[in-house]
C-alpha cells in the first residue's frame, strides 16, 4: 500500500509539473525559422541581436477557449492534490478518494478538450501571415497530449484507491 501511495503521489506531482510547463512555455507551434507561438505570445528570434521578440497573441475565440481550458486543467489538478492530502490525513479507514479522482479526471478532460481544440482549429488560432505548412506542433503541445492519459489514469487510480492504516 505504501508503494502504491508513493507511486500515485509521484505520478500526480510529475503530471502536474508537466501540465504546468505545457501551459506556460512558448512552444505550441514552431516555424522552421525558429519562430514560435504559444498560448500567450508569438515569439520571433532575431539573429542580429540574438534576442527573442515576443508580442501578445491576437485575441481569438478558439485561442481563449484553449487558454481557459489549460488553466482550468492546472487548477483542477492542483486542487485534486490538495484534496488528496486533506483526505489522506482526515479520512477514516476504508474510505475512497472519489473527490480527488473526479477532480483529476476533470483535469484530464479539460486538457484533452484544449489540445483537441488547438489541433482542429490551429489555422484560426495562428492567423498570422506565416504559412502553416512551414511549421509544426511544438514540444509543449506534445506534453499537453502526454498529460491527458496520465491525468485520466491517475484519476481512475484515485477513484479505486482505498485508504488503509
Spatial extent as radius of gyration: 19 Å
| Class per helix and strand makeup | alpha+beta
> What form results from the Cα inertia axes?
elongated
User: How would a crystallographer describe the biggest sheet?
Assistant: 5 strands, antiparallel
What proportion strand? 5-15%
> With helices defined by DSSP (H or I, 4 residues minimum), what is the helix count?
5
Order of H and E elements: HEEEEHHHEH
Question: Which ranges are low-confidence, i.e. pLDDT below 50, for 5 or more consecutive residues?
Answer: none
State mean pLDDT (0 to 100 scale): 86
Give helix % range. Answer: 55-70%
Count the strands? 5
Describe the structure.
By secondary structure, this protein is of the alpha+beta class. It contains five helices and five strands. The protein has helices at 2-24, 61-90, 98-120, 122-125, 139-160, and strands spanning 29-31, 36-37, 41-46, 51-56, 135-137. Helix 1 runs antiparallel to helix 2, helix 1 packs antiparallel against helix 5 (139-160) and helix 2 packs antiparallel against helix 3. The radius of gyration is 19 Å and the shape is elongated. The model has no long low-confidence stretch (mean pLDDT 86).
Give the helix/strand layout.
Layout: H1 2-24, E1 29-31, E2 36-37, E3 41-46, E4 51-56, H2 61-90, H3 98-120, H4 122-125, E5 135-137, H5 139-160
Antiparallel strand pairs: 1-2, 1-5, 2-3, 3-4
Helix pairs in contact: 1-2, 1-5, 2-3, 3-5
Amino acid at each position: 500500500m505504501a508503494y502504491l501511495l508513493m507511486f500515485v503521489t509521484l505520478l500526480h506531482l510529475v503530471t502536474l509539473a508537466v501540465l504546468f510547463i505545457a501551459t506556460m512555455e512558448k512552444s505550441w507551434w514552431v516555424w522552421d525559422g525558429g519562430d514560435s507561438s504559444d498560448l500567450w505570445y508569438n515569439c520571433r528570434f532575431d539573429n542580429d541581436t540574438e534576442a527573442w521578440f515576443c508580442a501578445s497573441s491576437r485575441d481569438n475565440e478558439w485561442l481563449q477557449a484553449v487558454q481557459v481550458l489549460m488553466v482550468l486543467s492546472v487548477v483542477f489538478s492542483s486542487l485534486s492534490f490538495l484534496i488528496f492530502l486533506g483526505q489522506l490525513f482526515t479520512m477514516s479507514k476504508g474510505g475512497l478518494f472519489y473527490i480527488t479522482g473526479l477532480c483529476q479526471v476533470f483535469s484530464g478532460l479539460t486538457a484533452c478538450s484544449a489540445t483537441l481544440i488547438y489541433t482542429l482549429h490551429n489555422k484560426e488560432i495562428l492567423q498570422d501571415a506565416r504559412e502553416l505548412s512551414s511549421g509544426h506542433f511544438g514540444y509543449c503541445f506534445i506534453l499537453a497530449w502526454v498529460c491527458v492519459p496520465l491525468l485520466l489514469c491517475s484519476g481512475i487510480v484515485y477513484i479505486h484507491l482505498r485508504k488503509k492504516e
